[in-house]
Amino acid sequence: MLARTSRSSLQLNLRTNQDNPNPTLIPTPSQSPGGTWDDPNLAPSPFYPNMDPAFLKEQQLAGSGLNAMGDGGGGYGLGHSQSMNQGGGFTMNRQDDGRLQLEQARAYYKTRKCITWTRSKLLLLLANTILFGYAVTCTVIMTMSWRGDPWTKPYLDSGIMMIANHNVLLLMMVTAPFGVLISLLGFVGIFAQSRKILSWYTVLLWPLFAMITSIGYICFRRSHVSLYQKLKFSWINEYTRDDRLVIQNALNCCGYRSLGDYPSYDLHCFPRAPLPSCETKFLQYQQDLLTNTSSAAFTLLPIQLLVMLVALLCSNHIDSLYRTAYPITPKLYTQ
């Protein structure tokens, strides 16, 4: 039990530091006759064993000093942080409670985050940059197509795609921004060196892969399985008058097989209009659109698989530490 006494009982035995060319005065607390420390705030840390007055006296008489207790036992010996003066007093400095080591460790790891670029981190950054590039490209193309820019017509006309391929269009509009968000999450995890964020990044790459695969499969199957019969059935039974009118204006045609075959008449399409039928143009449009879309999706699949493989292998080695957290710092005994 530490005896709590007043500050006035603290004796300041001033001594000079012989190792320093510029001598400094170091206060040393005294001990009470009962073998306890007068000031509890200057009591030795409980990390240091056998700190009773008899043990200290033996070490002083033996001439070995407290450094004989060892400085290499993980920081639990006295070492250079505590020493005895010639008057029998006990000297403590800032390193006794571990505050100096903690500050140095924090500064070290803060610097390490900025300068540590391992091979895994570079590969992960390259793969995520590729993902960000094609995700942003697809997002820009789909946005301009939705706005109806002139260069996107007629093959990327959102009006025709919404009527003839609405499920594919909606899936592409969701997939492209989702890829951008995943890549941004990857950049955050890379530069923050956060394994937790990179774990979510790796998991979210799988739904993105499934979306790209779905787009390619739907377009490939639709373009190779009875496309002509499906378009004819949809024109007659599924499309409304407004839907047929949108397709006719976009492709500059009138009627499906002829001017009188389920047309939607307006100022441009009428019984004697000098316009071709929509059968050939609409079929060619669908074949080109579905083929190009499926080819683009299947081309991105190997790249996406490569990004996923790099994320799986490198996300847990974002820095040179092989632990999952920073080293555990002992509790500070600063009463």
Describe the structure using short key phrases.
mainly alpha, 9 helices, elongated, 3% strand, Tetraspanin/Peripherin, two-stranded antiparallel sheet
Give a nutshell description of this structure.
With 335 residues, the protein is mostly helical.
Description:
There is one protein chain. With 335 residues, the protein is mainly α. It has two domains: 1-70 and 79-88, no CATH class; 118-317, no CATH class. It has helices at residues 53-62, 99-115, 119-147, 158-164, 166-192, 195-224, 227-238, 241-251, 278-314, and strands spanning 15-16, 25-26, 82-84, 90-92. Strand 3 and strand 4 (90-92) form a beta hairpin. Residues 1-17, 24-51, 63-96 and 322-330 have low confidence and may be disordered.
Which strand order do you get reading across the main beta sheet?
Answer: 1-2
Biggest sheet features: 2 strands, antiparallel
H/E series: EEHEEHHHHHHHH
Structural class, from helix and strand content? mainly alpha
Q: Which geometry do the CA atoms define?
A: elongated
Oligomeric form: single chain
Low-pLDDT residue spans: 1-17, 24-51, 63-96, 322-330
Q: CA-to-CA gap between the ends?
A: 14 Å
Q: Helical percent range?
A: 40-55%
Total number of strands = 4
Question: Total helix count?
Answer: 9
Give the tally of structural domains: 2
**Proportion of β residues?**
under 5%
Query: What is the mean pLDDT?
Result: 72
Based on CA atoms alone, the radius of gyration comes out at 39 Å
List the helices and strands and how they pair.
Blueprint (H helix, E strand, L loop, with lengths): L14 E2 L8 E2 L26 H10 L19 E3 L5 E3 L6 H17 L3 H29 L10 H7 L1 H27 L2 H30 L2 H12 L2 H11 L26 H37 L21
Antiparallel strand pairs: 1-2, 3-4
